Q: What sequence folds into this?
């Protein structure tokens, strides 16, 4: 007598086999999903912490996004990297910066250089129970990608030897380190390459080495990264200082700041270098200059005005002196007797700016000088003035011929700058009394010779940086000159009428 169960019906066996088959397929599918999910989770997590649980795991890591979504105000005190100096020795600090360089020394030690604006500081990680730093934390720090944004808490210490790779001559002994935002592993621009000077390229070439040169197109395509180089940081800060000093000086001379329209009905300078467009079916253009509105302000009783604003020129030239758009520093003032009153204001303005930069922007100037070397500007306390004819005569004596009553071209201006420097010991001077043919329509002719004008240009190192003049203030002469310069007087009627 058998104790085995009776055989199952064929239909039941088929059902069991099918269920087993489906179960295996589902298991494989679920396994693949789980594997992909684990890979995604691993990519989002910091590097593995090792076999042993890290007792200092809370001292480092990637900060979750929700923690930086204005979740709370901690009340913590932050220290600027540029403010770290020897006086801070022994003090605990909290800093934030971009990871400019990461140098592992061993499993238990690493250096991370953080950068904030133009300042850099070296942060030191040494695995130690006393410091609350583990080998896993050191490994985490070395896994950071360059330009990642990092928060560091630590204690300021003084290095045994002077630091050459950082601006700050202190170190931070790291106690906590958190990554706020990771940069991609490979950036399109290496800041070290973008910050190189021509001298570095020349030395490398002589040594048979080849360095990466970052071209202009690459810099412009990735401008946000290129702006981080020390020289660019310094250039923008000096630009800000020039603008501030411009405002400060003119305000002290009783000027009033104004803002003029940039979308206007007609040309503000004359000539073809104007961006034309249609505005609601009407012809319009972008302002080449705030000139007409500055003069209208003077007629409106302001006496002295200035403006800092955009200027648009449809220049069909590929040189550093021809820009389609730039920020103009403009000034206009009432003349009591002679347009040299304007020259005197310009003289005082520029000397004040030069002194301010030399005294207050030494760090920025030195930073720029490292990548783009330059010599200190030579200028006189009382600015040199030369007539146009005197300048032309200097050029002729040096063998350079200029078209009679013509404007100076780029090479002539540069040569004149060299001649003036050699003869007078200055790179900053004013050339005045230009021919009528090379000045805007609103420029006042000279009283003794209408072929010349009461106008001037200001030069630095052989390049014109300012044009100025006494303006025509009689409607009849203004209309006549506009027509002679090819300007439709009806498009500037409001400007002309302001002198009636």
A:
């Amino acid at each position: 007598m058998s104790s085995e169960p009776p055989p199952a019906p064929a239909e039941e066996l088929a059902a069991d086999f099918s269920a087993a088959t489906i179960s295996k397929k589902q298991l494989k599918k679920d396994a693949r999903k789980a594997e992909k999910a684990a890979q995604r989770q691993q990519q989002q997590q910091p590097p593995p912490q090792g076999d042993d649980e890290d007792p200092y795991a809370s001292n480092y890591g990637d900060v979750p996004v929700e923690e930086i979504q204005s979740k709370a105000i901690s009340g913590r005190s932050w220290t600027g990297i540029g403010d770290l100096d020897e006086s801070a020795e022994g003090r605990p600090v909290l800093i934030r910066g971009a990871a400019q360089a990461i140098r592992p020394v061993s499993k238990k030690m690493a250096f991370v250089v953080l950068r904030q604006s133009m300042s850099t500081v070296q942060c030191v990680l040494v695995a130690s129970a006393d410091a609350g730093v583990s080998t896993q934390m050191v490994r985490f720090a070395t896994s950071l990608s360059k330009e990642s944004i990092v928060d560091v808490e630590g204690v300021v210490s003084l290095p045994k030897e002077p630091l050459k790779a950082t601006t700050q001559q202190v170190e931070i002994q790291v106690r906590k380190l958190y990554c706020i935002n990771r940069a991609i592993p490979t950036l399109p621009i290496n800041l070290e390459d973008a910050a190189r000077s021509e001298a570095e390229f020349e030395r490398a070439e002589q040594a048979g080495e080849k360095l990466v040169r970052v071209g202009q197109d690459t810099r412009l395509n990735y401008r946000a990264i290129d702006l981080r180089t020390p020289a660019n940081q310094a250039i923008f800060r000096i630009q800000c200082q020039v603008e501030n000093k411009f405002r400060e000086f003119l305000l002290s001379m009783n000027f009033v700041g104004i803002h003029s329209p940039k979308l206007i009905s007609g040309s503000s300078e004359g000539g073809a270098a104007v961006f034309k467009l249609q505005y609601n079916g009407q012809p319009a253009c972008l302002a080449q200059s705030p000139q007409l509105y500055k003069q209208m302000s003077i007629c409106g009783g302001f006496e002295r005005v200035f403006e800092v604003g955009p200027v648009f020129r449809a220049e069909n030239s590929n040189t550093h002196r021809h820009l389609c758009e730039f920020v103009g520093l403009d000034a206009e003032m009432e003349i009591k007797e002679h347009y040299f009153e304007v020259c005197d204001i310009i003289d005082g303005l520029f000397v004040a700016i030069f002194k301010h930069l030399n005294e207050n922007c030494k760090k920025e100037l030195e930073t720029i000088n490292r990548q783009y070397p330059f010599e200190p500007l030579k200028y006189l306390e009382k600015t040199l003035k030369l007539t146009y004819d005197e300048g032309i005569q200097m050029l002729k004596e040096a063998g350079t011929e200029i078209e009679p009553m013509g404007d100076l071209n780029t090479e002539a201006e540069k040569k004149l700058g060299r001649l003036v420097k050699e003869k007078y010991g200055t790179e900053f001077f004013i050339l005045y009394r230009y021919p009528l043919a090379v000045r805007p329509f609103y420029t006042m002719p000279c009283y003794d010779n209408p072929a010349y004008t009461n106008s001037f240009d200001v030069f630095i190192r052989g390049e014109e940086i300012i044009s100025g003049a006494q303006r025509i203030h009689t409607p009849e002469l203004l209309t006549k000159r506009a027509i002679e310069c090819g300007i439709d007087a009806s498009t500037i009627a409001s400007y002309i009428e302001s002198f009636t």
